[in-house]
Specification:
The chain is an all-beta fold. It has one domain. It contains no helices and eleven strands. A hairpin with a 5-residue loop joins strand 7 and strand 8. The chain starts with 11 loop residues before the first strand and ends with a strand.
């Protein structure tokens, strides 16, 4: 699997008995091609063509490692006056909404298109996220900031561990947000995973 990307990483060491274990932190932007080197991390395109395919912003585990993710950070930046019923300032929210899924590539190198959905995380609560307020169905940590001038922004911290467990990706598996709406009115729209491997 060649789509694992170039996740930024540092390192720290822990000692378990006499065995040295290295855990490398992962901070990964979901992008439209699954890599940080060449992919676009800002999901502000028009993805709403009725007959067109879904758009994926995604990350795949490295070919030789299992990856553990504790949280997903979502950043939405738009002009002033975000309302709870909107998405950013997209009036009345999204028609289709945002889905979060874990996928398996079934051994092929095609990325998320045609991959098998192992679990649809957003299906466990209700429906895909369609408004600013609906991020709160999954995440207690939803922070709206109005600085008084310039753009407003919404920051969301979705801590998977607080929902039961972390998300573990084995080689060939991916995590993705699925988009099928027009996000071109937003200024910034980013998804960042935090976790570790090793």
């Amino acid at each position: 699997m060649s789509h694992g990307g170039s996740a930024r990483q540092g390192g720290f060491q822990s000692i378990v008995g006499t065995i040295e274990v290295a855990q490398q932190p992962l901070y990964v932007h979901l992008t439209d091609d699954g890599t940080e080197a060449t992919g676009e991390p800002n999901a502000i395109g028009v993805y709403s063509t009725t007959s067109g395919p879904d758009t994926y912003f995604w990350h795949a585990a490295g070919a030789d490692r299992e990856e553990h993710f504790y949280r997903l950070m979502i950043h939405i930046q738009d002009s002033t006056g975000m309302a709870s019923k909107d998405y950013g300032n997209i009036t009345n929210g999204l028609a289709n909404g945002i889905r979060l899924v874990v996928l398996d590539s079934d051994g092929t190198d095609h990325g998320p298109v045609g991959a098998t959905i192992l679990t649809e995380i957003t299906a466990h609560v209700d429906t895909p996220v369609k408004t600013n307020a609906e991020w709160g169905k999954w995440c207690f940590d939803v922070n709206y900031e109005n600085q008084g001038s310039g753009d407003d922004y919404l920051n969301v911290r979705w801590t998977f561990r607080n929902s039961g467990t972390e998300i573990r990706l084995r080689p060939g598996q991916m995590i993705a947000v699925i988009l099928h709406d027009d996000f071109s009115g937003l200024i910034k729209h980013n998804f960042v995973l935090q976790g570790h491997y090793g």
